[in-house]
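Q: My labmate handed me this sequence with no annotations at all. I'd like to see what the chain might look like in three dimensions before we decide whether it's worth expressing. Could you predict it?
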Amino acid sequence: MSRQPIAVFGYLLFAAMLAACASVAVVDVPDTKPGDQIQNEYLVGKWCTNREQTATSNQAAGFSGLLNVRPVFWRFGAEGEWDISTSGFLYENYGSWQIDGLDKLLITKKNMEPKPYQVYFKNDEGVTDLYLVDDKGQFTVLSRCD
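A: Here is what I predict for the chain of 146 residues:
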């Protein structure tokens, strides 16, 4: 049997995988502070749980730095869809998101009430971090991973 069809199939499979990994254009997000207007475009894309920064931010706020935060990859779609992944490769729909007011992010898991977070962004050494602060003042920090 000829190896040419196998090679063609391999190239097509590789091309399909690359196309699936193609991401939307990432917007340069400025540093913001609580109370600044957050734009939808700032959130669109892939975000990775930053466990170290989450622990550091919570300790500085007087909370335990020892968190049971497992590595999770978040993807915010332009149409308000929210997907998650434990691998960073295969995502599944987890709910929806929307900006409410200036700096409030409403995240809604499927069939649940929206959970509000105050959000702001920090850029450090070329990495954009998204700070989510819940109603108790606890942090979840995500880093851009597009």
